[in-house]
Amino acid sequence: MQPQTTGAGSSGPAGDGERRGWRPYHTLWAVLLGGWLFSYADRAITGPVVTWLINNDIGLIGGSSHPHALGGLIGSLFFAGYMLTQYPGGYLGDRYGHRAMLAISLVWAGVTTVVTGLVTGLIVFVALRVLTGLGEGVFYSNDRTLIAKHSPPGKVSLGMGVVITGLSLGLTIATIGAPYLLDWGVDAFGKEDGWRMPFLVLGGATLVFGFVMVPYLRRLGGPLKAGGPTLRLLGISALFCAAVMAVYLVADSAGMPAWGVAIAETVLALLLVGVIFARRGGQAGSIVRNRDAMLLSIAAVAILWNLWFFSFWSVSIVADAAHSSFAQAALVATFNAGAGVLGFPAGGLLSDRAKKRGWGRRPMLVWFTLIQGVLVLAFGAYLHVAGKPSLVVMSVMLFTASLFFNALQPMAHALLAEVVEEHQRGAAFGMWNLIGEIGAVISPALGGALFDAYGTWVGAIYIDGGLMIASAVIYLYVREQRTPSLAPA
Fold this sequence. Notes:
- By secondary structure, the protein is mainly alpha-helical.
- It is built from 21 helices and no strands.
């Protein structure tokens, strides 16, 4: 099944394949890429800031007896919120319009990130990160659906790859910019409050881009009518945030370890989403009964695990292994983040060409996932055997593994778009990210807890690589019709 081309791609499949130069759907890709860039910078900045707080023994986190576990738990709680609005975000987009949900998500992220930089106290800080995750959680499913709807059929995977390059750019900006923003913050606010500056700057930039994005989305398809979905999302988010924070406070007071709290939050998220499924059983049920969509969603656990283990802890991994400075570690870690600039569009292009030639997307997806898992295991083995790992070698290994990792993602996204009906894509992408976020919720907290327990990141890296290999096996059981694209690529 091929997506239909309307709106930004209204000139038709054949025309877009034959004409050269800038096309309307390219503008859509560029705008959505910007949305990914700013929203990912907002969420990714937490990891470097947490590492800086630990290294400088700042009271917000650094004074904890298990600082890496606590820092990882903060990242996990963000993704507990992010996970909870995956399916509701897709459902609201299918009902109220995907453009409206994208605008709401980006403005929401900017506001909550700015407020994060203004608050005092760990509990309020955590609550703001949860709220940021709840708002950003609706972006993914609506973004993927809009690309599938407005792009020529032969370029859907390429479009998804180009757009999600913004993820890599956002990670890169947050990682490499963190030392400078923190230094600026120390100069402006003093050492104890220097951590505020990254949130204020990146949140403000997101808010500005969100308001710039709104007029374009209106031109794309008319008035956004954002009032209704905003109120619905606010109501859902208030309930979810209260539930996440309640579990966190009860578990923390009971002395539960960080990884245990992360698992408890995952169970909570699944139970709450189960209630939504019970109320919206028709569409959700049809997706759950779609064997191939569910296999792709289960395999996504490894994708989100890898993404947020390395995105959150890469600076700390490099700094601990090489005993380098924070700035040097951040620079090396950008090789992990920056590989997506090449990997995402290359993976999308390769996937579309494989589909056009009748090979299908699945074989390439399996191989890329398997290779990436082996490369992660090799990175862990290098850290295990090297007395003092080379920054150059670590840079090369991180870049290579990340290149394959980023390339496989648009392959999986495009395959998912083809195994569900067009009117179900928003909900299907929401389901994919919902289930996949189990990995994002657990990996930061578990990784930090393992480091506090054993003094090394190697064990957590081995777990990551093993999960990616398991994901490759799951893809083998996804059924795909290897029919070539009807439009030229």
